[in-house]
Write a structure and sequence with these properties.
Layout (H helix, E strand, L loop, with lengths): L14 E3 L16 H12 L8 H7 L4 H14 L2 E10 L2 E10 L6 H9 L29 H12 L7 H16 L4 H9 L9 H11 L20 E2 L6 E2 L10 H4 L13 H17 L1
Parallel strand pairs: 1-3
Antiparallel strand pairs: 2-3, 4-5
């Protein structure tokens, strides 16, 4: 996998390295699973501005899009990757864009806050919009809203019956954020909120709160390690090569080769029907005598 020819994203997008990272080390991703460590190491070697979308990575790596999407979600939960969905508003309307930061060392949400907030859309290099994106926010437009808030604010455009106020979006924002923590995308949340709505909707905020809580997906979990029970050990007698359990051999020989008396074998008990047949035969023989 070569990074020199990796495609670059449109100006202002793509990978951005987090500030204040230590020097490159062989142990940077040692605590990650093998696949995630390989993908993280590859992204780490890419220059800022490189296209690290799932489709772009799938063209140059030996992983499919599904595996890459799962791995990137894992890196995001582990603190190496920060992806922010933002609504860029211009005279011609708005468009959702994704901005991405990468850190060689894992970072908590608080540690990510400073570099992310310091480079909001509309300031610095991130303000340069791609040709196929909408222009950046005009002066006076509020930016910097969280991913959860922006999603809730957009629900009414998809389904007018679920239009929410600014206060509703602020109150429900933590519930929507938990969906993203668990790996959901905007479309997943919107589908959960808008599919199969009752008619009419009397309390949009209450219904959204109920669905965000009741339909919350489970937390990502690693597959349990299945332990395999080993078959009982079987060894051979060193003299006659007869198979047997280890505890039956003494000094590597079975009982027969050591001259030990054969175990007394008691006849197996008869089934009830044979007992009754034998008793009948004995009674018949007794009556004849």
């Amino acid at each position: 996998m070569h990074t020199a020819s990796h495609p670059m994203a449109s100006a202002g997008y793509g990978k951005r390295s987090a500030a204040g990272q230590p020097a490159l080390s062989a142990d940077d991703f040692a605590l990650l699973p093998g696949r995630e460590a390989a993908i993280a190491g590859f992204i780490d070697r890419l220059p800022d501005g490189a296209d690290i979308s799932v489709k772009a990575l799938a063209k140059v790596m030996d992983y499919g899009q599904c595996a890459l999407r799962t791995a990137l979600n894992f890196l995001e939960r582990a603190g190496h990757l920060l992806r922010r969905r933002e609504l860029v508003v211009g005279p011609g309307g708005g468009r959702w864009v994704t901005r991405t930061w990468f850190s060689r060392t894992a970072r908590s949400d608080d540690a990510w806050g400073a570099p992310a907030d310091a480079d909001e859309p509309g300031t610095g290099a991130a303000s340069v919009a791609a040709p196929d994106q909408a222009p950046v926010a005009a002066p006076g437009t509020r930016v910097g809203r969280s991913r959860g808030y922006l999603l809730l604010a957009s629900v009414g455009r998809r389904c007018p019956a679920l239009s929410l106020s600014a206060a509703d979006c602020t109150a429900l924002e933590p519930l929507a954020a938990e969906w993203f923590v668990r790996g959901s995308l905007e479309e997943d949340v919107l589908r959960a909120l808008t599919d199969g709505l009752p008619t009419p909707v009397h309390h949009p905020a209450g219904l959204v709160r109920s669905r965000l809580t009741a339909k919350l997906p489970p937390e990502p979990a690693e597959m349990p390690v299945v332990s395999h029970r080993m078959a009982p050990a079987v060894v051979e007698c060193g003299t006659c090569r007869a198979p047997g359990r280890p505890e039956a051999l003494v000094d590597g020989e079975c009982g027969a080769c050591r001259g030990a008396p054969a175990p007394v074998r008691h006849p197996a008990s008869l089934p009830p029907d044979q007992v009754r047949a034998r008793a009948a035969e004995v009674r018949k023989a007794a009556t004849r005598t």
